[in-house]
Amino acid sequence: MTKPKRSSLAQKGARFEELVLCLLLGFMIVLACVQIALRTFFGGGLLWADPLLRYLVLWSGLLGASMATSRGEHIALDLAGYLLPEKLQPLVQLACHLFALITSGFLTWASILFIQSEIEYGSPGLLDIPTWGWNMIFPLAFLLITLRYLALVFTTTTTILQGHKSTTGVRQ
Amino acid sequence: MTLFKIITLLLAILGAPLFLVISALALISFSSVDIDLSVVVIEMSRLADTPMLISLPLFIFAGTLLSESKAPERILMLSRIFLGWMPGGLAVVSLAVCAVFTAFTGASGVTIFALGGLLLPALIKDGYNERFSMGLITSSGSLGLLFPPSLPLILYGVISETRIDHLFLAGILPGLLMLVLLAAYSMRQSPTAPDNKQRYSGKDALSALRQSAWELPLPVIILGGIYGGFFVAGEAAAVTCLYVLIVEVLIYRDIKISALPGIMSKSMMLFGGILVILAASMASTNYLVDQEVPMRLFEFIREYIDSKYTFLLLLNIFLLIVGAMLDIFSALVLVVPLILPIANGYGVDPIHLGIIFLTNLQIGYCTPPVGLNLFLASYRFEKPIVELYRSTLPFLALLLITLVVITYFPWLSQVLIRTFG
Amino acid sequence: GPKHLFKIASLAPDGSVWVTQFEKFTKEVTEKTGGEVGFRVYAGGIMGDDQAMYRKMRVGQLHGGGFTMTGIASVVPDFRIMSIPFLFNNYQEVDAVSEGLMPLFQEQFSKQGLEFIARTEVGFIYTMSTKPVVSTEELKKSTIWIPAGDPLAATFIDQIGLSPVQLSIPDVLSSLQTGLIDTVFNSLYGSIVLQWFTKAKYVTDNPFGYAYGVFLLDKKKFDKLPPKYATIIRESAAKHFSVLIEETRKSNDESNLVLKKQGVTFVKANPDSLRELQTFRQKTIDKAMGSAFSEATYNKMMKILDTYRAAHKTSGH
Ligand code: NA
Ligand code: NA
């Protein structure tokens, strides 16, 4: 009852995300190695491979960051555990999650503004995909992060209201 | 606006994710000077133009694979056979193994968790006292930071736009100096009657060599590949990845294929955590550039400090504080862009600066009160943190001595570049 | 502070002829407007490359920039027309064409919300490599850089049958140093300013193309200026940017000697190979016309060039 129940939709989403991450990383390793082989043995690589790899790094990293959100694995100082009495900790956690929700919401908004401007003025980018397409990972990842903090705010609030000690935040 | 910033900083101390703290500061700052918020994302999108970035996720994945395999046990066995015979043998083995392991996995605490559990009982069994042993492992947890292909070294190269292959060379001698000093101290502290020392035969040695035959070539592949001119640092990461994948999954079969997706997504989460901090700091740095802060800061500092040596001294003190407060990745992305132009003004070579940075941040890992290694070790060994403060003090003193040497003898970080670069 | 502050960025490094001369221009404008119009210069790429600079201009963080042709031609494709390989024989032809096309460029940039203030110059560009490159064969054996986002260069290199590495300018030096590429293209002065000559120590002494850029201001912001200030900017720009072009040419001339003193070797291209490479020019034009630039602008340019050549009794390649 104290454990936050994740809907099967969120679970499926997380599984899908994990799959995408694995595919991205696998593809990055293969493409980078193919590029080295082509350069070493055939004197020239694929023109689009290096810029594509750079975008893949961005996509995999931002998706990874979004996954890290729901597992509480973002780098943080977290002195609360040493500074504050245990009673206050759920409240502090709620404040942190609220702050994270608002900030990631603004980041999503800023990304949408950026993408709008790219759609209006941008140019065809790598592999004739417009630059806004390659940059779509920003609104996508920040939206996912926002939704995850929304869920965290919700579960923390419920926990506090139920008067239980927080069990969601086993953080390092 | 100032109120928002204060709230943000307060929440930072209380555990809000750092990438959002930095992002929030950037968003608040830009809106306070009426600049469109999308600048934050424009600046983040520049990460797609960073060619060296790819070596981060690839080396992270290779490091995670190594730490999930039985490589730590094999390397430990091998070192015990070849180094264990000398006075203070096991302590030297611990230092060497931790250094190699940290170089490959980054100082993300993996070293203390994966190796600490093996090393501490062994050290105590060999007659080392407990306090010394804990201090040794805690301070070794970040010892390999200066050795290639350590992640913080790569990250410094990415942020400062300096050559990663040069950074790899620059770190070797300073890293060895640390290792030698700590080893010498450990030899002095070794138990007087090493009667329970295990003896190994030539057969044991051969078998240990054969067992780790596939992992031994890794440093050669990375360093030989780069300095032999076969590939650049980013490509070295891809080759390392493929090699480790084949060795650990197909040859040793330490890692089941079914376990791969978990390891892969774990590595990407680790990388993602670093990437978003880097992205956020791109935005906050751009605000500082926009307001010409680095330039003004330099002019301000130059009014009070004339000498490069005084500057370096103050820089070290500043970085030790930063290193003790922040994790190494946040410290790098936040402080390097600010300090680099100033150090440049004092004629400090950016590669040398990088080594100074990393040495300080490494020491920060075991500096009381909040060094990360202290917490990790306290958690792993189930000891109160104050006890770990005391046990790491002698090691801390030695590391500070190397810091002075590294700072004031740039030769140490430059001679290999002149020879092989 | 100034009532009208223009924040300007450029890839050109501090202390280079482009930034130094630009600062003389800003100083004059500020003086003549009684301090009402001011400039803040972000040199050396600290605001990012051309693409980032353009994005920041759109949202109003920057109000202008010294752009390279390759970086800004994605916004106005016809602007790259003068970079067709083996097009010009000398700087007089460059100036004739540039002057003739100026109204067209101004109009096209203006449609994108950008005020074309002046053309800037990098100069005639040369092949530079870590080893001597004098024949097509040797060119084919090398690992060549081309600027990211330059379809014309990509088409030309593709016609020759080379597979290049695409990098943006700030990444070229480190890639030369690490051996990712061994052959680059730049003006002589450009290779000094960007330190490329420290690695690419062999220059093939036959220019094959022309590189240039443009100083743009945000049109919205420029239009808001009182007309007399706009005129001051235009007049000062006309004066200082023509000096800048002279200075750039002088620097390129002097660079020949500087490079030789630094141990750079100049080699002559094999005449057969040079003729062979020139045949790829027409193929490149045929292939790139309509996508990389418009046919109308190409025809207009060739008419100006032919008229100039007829009047000065010279011919093309
Ligand atoms: Na930065
Ligand atoms: Na730290």
Automatic annotation (TrEMBL), chain A:
It is found in: Cell inner membrane. The keyword Transcription does not apply. GO terms for biological process: C4-dicarboxylate transport. It comes from the Bacteria. Residues 28-155 form the Tripartite ATP-independent periplasmic transporters DctQ component domain. GO terms for cellular component: plasma membrane. Keywords: Cell inner membrane, Cell membrane, Membrane, Transmembrane, Transmembrane helix, Transport. It is a multi-pass membrane protein. The chain crosses the membrane at residues 20-40, 52-70, 91-116, 136-161. It holds the Pfam family DctQ. One of its GO terms (molecular function) is transmembrane transporter activity. InterPro entries: DctQ (IPR055348), TRAP_DctQ (IPR007387). The keyword Transport applies. Its main location: membrane. Belongs to the TRAP transporter small permease family. This is TRAP-type C4-dicarboxylate transport system, small permease component. It comes from Desulfopila aestuarii DSM 18488.
UniProtKB/TrEMBL annotation, chain B:
The chain crosses the membrane at residues 50-67, 88-120, 132-155, 167-187, 220-247, 268-289, 309-339, 351-372, 392-412. Residues 8-412 form the TRAP C4-dicarboxylate transport system permease DctM subunit domain. Keywords: Cell inner membrane, Cell membrane, Membrane, Transmembrane, Transmembrane helix. One of its GO terms (cellular component) is plasma membrane. The keyword Transmembrane applies. It is found in: Cell inner membrane. Pfam families: DctM. It comes from the Bacteria. GO terms for molecular function: transmembrane transporter activity. InterPro entries: DctM, TRAP_DctM. It is a multi-pass membrane protein. This is TRAP transporter, DctM subunit.
